[in-house]
Structure formats: structure tokens, C-alpha cells
Amino acid sequence: MCGIVGYIGNNEKKDFILNGLRELEYRGYDSAGIATLSNGELITYKAVGKLINLEQKCKDFTSTGFGVAIGHTRWATHGKPTEANAHPHIAEFSNVIHNGIIENYKELKERLEKKGHYFLSQTDTEVIVHLFEDYLNDGLDCFEAFKRTIGELRGAYAILLITKKEPDKIFYAKNASPLIIGRGEGGIYLASSDAPLMGYAQEVSYLEDGALGYIDLHNFSSLPNIKQLPQNKGYAQKEGFRYFMEKEIYEQSGVLLETMMGRVSEGKISFENLSADFFDGIGEITICACGTSYHAGMVGKYLLERYAKIKTNVVIASEYRYSSPVLREDELFIAISQSGETLDTLEAIKFVKPFGNKTLAICNVDNSSIVRECDEVLLTRAGIEKGVASTKAFATQVMVLWMLSTYIGSIRGNLSQKEVQKNIEDMVASAKRTEISAKMHEKIKRLSKRYLHGHGFFFIGRDVFYPLALESALKLKEISYLHAEGYPSGEMKHGPIALADSELFTVALMPEHLLYEKIKSNVEELSARDATICAVSALEFEGADDMLYIPSCSSYMEEFFSMMCALQLFALEIAIRLGNDVDMPRNLAKSVTVE
Ligand code: G6P
Fold it and tell me: In what helix (H) or strand (E) does residue 332 lie, and over which residues does it extend?
């Protein structure tokens, strides 16, 4: 993954590069680096850890006058997060930054080492700059050398390269990793997403896979698909919350209403850009996603089968495309992604497209790669999500899937008008259920101190509460680094119950309005084996060691959204007590653009 930025112009190069990297830090924060080339001088700074360390390191550095610059924030794939492995990578007179993975770097490295090239890092990226200079040494001009270099690479990449041989250009190549070039009054700007470009570039070109070339101050107009860039960047601020994740949990009731706005009214559901005939002839649905979005997809399966009455498969994107999947002609392919840039999901869509199936993105970022790749989109409208652990994006994904299931159910006549109306009322009530009460938050804060040890957590639930159990376990893992698993509660007796003892924490999702008696028996089986039980429910459960009460609701989906909030806060408070950086947990990144 990683984030990359570039600049050509007369302004202070450090400004755009560091501001841009700040916008892209969600893509990785293992290390960061910057290189500027002006007045014949190529200067590189790198620092391990978050961007602030790089900012400190080059705080006295200035670069005035015309020049070019590149910057990178890294999520380590090849080689540890050390300074040597941080980008830019350096050869004799050129620097390169890269987002993606070069699959054949080993063979290229061996070949170059035999020719006398000396490598400083363990990364795959470093071969690019050596290969480039090797071709230059053979007498090729810079563009030809760059073309030959890219021609030898296998894998995914967005690459920016600068060289003293052509100090007014940035060479670029894109395949499967995002890259955007913009032009503004201050010059030329490049970045992995459009957020860093806002406020700098007025017009942009979203490069397509296979794009390869160089950009200077004069050739921007020759780029394809030039569009105006909206300038209204929504800056996310913590607004008094301790972490973005906490703020985003509190924002859920607002964004859920936003997600419904204009789509749900007067007993009817409709989508601004989707007409009913898009679903004509659809006999099956496959939902494809990763991480939290995959869990939303699993909830979607229950809802689509229940309300739309369409058989639905849910697949993990990284598994899908290499598994020889069988596609039916009447199968709709739905990709779910918060960022719209997850490479596994993007590649799965690209795999499906040649079969001619309809594709629909459920996504939070308009104009992202996944949105551009799909036939149609339903935007989730969660607003910018900064916390690496996804919360409000998940909530809105589930809401969109619920609206979609109800919509298909109504146009196909599988739901009566009364049933549609009931779902709509439940949707509005569910948004209300995600308002966080001070009392509940306080209770969870207190409860959290009892759950900092133990040898593991099981989150258990049935039906849609099973994917919620998976998602709640994922939240806890991501930010607390404690071992947690989600299980269908009926499955515990088929093996996992062997782990039950007093040091095993079982968080039981016990909705009053869905299979309460069934899950109660499953939890009793665990309780009888002395597992420590934390029951999440509106109903008191005697076998529980702790009760995490949710308000009494009138539908199971209201209970779903209420428990979702309680369990997000549960993970948050445990992680805070453990002293972890909740917004930037170790080893993770917000957007994963490598396979
Ligand atoms: C990363 C993030 C997860 C996220 C997953 C899918 O692994 O750390 O929080 O759920 O990517 O991301 P997407 O943007 O496609 O929803």
C-alpha cells in the first residue's frame, strides 16, 4: 500500500509533500521519506515511524526555486520498517518511491548485483532505481530507460522517479495502484488519492492502469480524462474526543440518517442513480469484500435472502479470484469497500468484468478506483473515516445493504407495502439507537478494566449477530492486540467449547427479538463450564458474570445497531486502558493496496 506524492514547481517543495503525506498517512505509518531536486542538488530525508518524525528531521530544511520533489509514507511489505527500507530509494543520481509489490524483484536484484549494483535495503522497490540507472549506463535516454525498467516489472505499482539527468521531470508508471496527476497555480501535483491535491490542484487526471510517462510543467494537457477537482475538502478534526475512532462511533447516528436521506421516504425506498431495471433478471448475488466490509457483506447475505429472496454468496476478495469461481450469467457482483482502493477487492472486480456480469460498488469514497471500475455505485455517505478500525463506515454499509434488500424485496413483490413500511420505521429507529448515552459509555469504561487479561475472547451470536460477533472480535483484535474470535453461538459445542474456563471471556450477543432462547442455551453450555460471560442484551441473563445492557428495542435490527455501538466502545475502552494508539494501531493501515 503506502502513499505517494510528488510536486514540480517553484514553491517550497516541503510544504505540499509533507501536507500531502499527512493526508495519506492512513495508507501506512511505518516510515516516511522525502526527496527534492533543485539547483542540481538531490536531497533525501527519511525517518522511521509516524510522519511527525520526518517533519522533525527536516524542520530546518528549505528548498526554494524551481525543482521537483517526491514523498512517501510506508506500510512495510518487504523488509522491516527501518530507515534503510524507507522510501525514497536511492541509486547514484536518481530517487524512486513506490506503492505496491514488485513480484519478480529477487531475480532482478540478483542480475543487477552481478553487474556491480550495490543495494542498501531489503525492499522490492530498490531494484527499480538500479534497473533504471543500469539502462542509462547502457546509453539509453531517460524515458527509454524508464520504459524498459517498467517493462521488466511484474506486480502492482504506482511509481514516481526523479533523476538529476532530467531535473525538470517526474517519471511515473501505474498498474493496479492508484495515481493521480493534478495541475494548479503552483505547478504540478501528484498523489495516491485526490485528498492531498485539494487546495493545490484545480484539475486532475486519474491515471488508468498501464499509464507510463513523464510529467513536467508543460505537458499536463496531454493527459487523459482531465477533470475539475472539487475544492471542498472536509477536514476531519477530533472535536474534543480522545481519538478519531471515538468521534466516529459518536457520529454514527448522524451518518446513518445521511445514508438514508433522499433514499427512504413515505413508505418507499429508491436510489438516486439506480433504476429498478438494473435488477431485472438477477437470480443470484455475490458480495465480495475484505475485513470489516466483508463482515458487512455477511450481514447483507442474511438481509438479502430474508427480504429480497435472492440467493447470496459472500466471498473474501483475496480468496475469490484465485479460486476458479463459477459465475452464473444472472449473477450480480457487489463489491463493498470503505476506501474504494483495497487492491484485493479491486482485482476481484477486474476478474469478474470480462464475464459481463453486472457490478455494483457499495463504497464510501466517490471517484475511488472501485467506484470507477463498477457499473453502478451506492455511496455509503459516512464522511471521512480516519480511525484505522472502521466503525461508522461499517454501520452505513449495513444500512445500505438493508435498504437494498428491502428495495429489491419491494420491487419484486416479495415484501408487502406494510413490511416495507415496517423496515423503514426500524431503520429510522436503528439510527436513533446508535446515539451514545453517557450512562452506557460510562458503564463500558468501568467494565473494560475487568477484560484486560485472560487467554482470549469469544464473541458469539446467531444470524446477523454472528457477523456482528466477528466484527466485534476484529475491532478488539485490531486495537487491543488481544486474541479474539467470533463464532456462531451454535457452533461452540462443536469444538471451541474445549477452551472454556474462567480465563476465557465470552461476549454473548443476546438479542431479545431473534432466536433468544437458542442463544441462551448456547451461553448456558459455556456458563456451565465456568467460562466468564459478558452478556450483551436488553434482558437480564442470570448465567452472566457481567451484563452490558442495551436499551429495550422493538426489532432485532435496532438491537443489532445498539450492540454494534456498545461493542465498538468496549474495544475502544480496553485499548485505551492498555495504552495503545487507537487511531493508528500497530502493523495496520487504513487502505491496503497490496495483495
Ligand atoms: C484494511 C483495514 C480494515 C478494512 C479493510 C478493507 O485491512 O485495516 O479496517 O476493513 O482494509 O478496507 P475497505 O476500504 O476495502 O473497506
Answer: strand 331-337
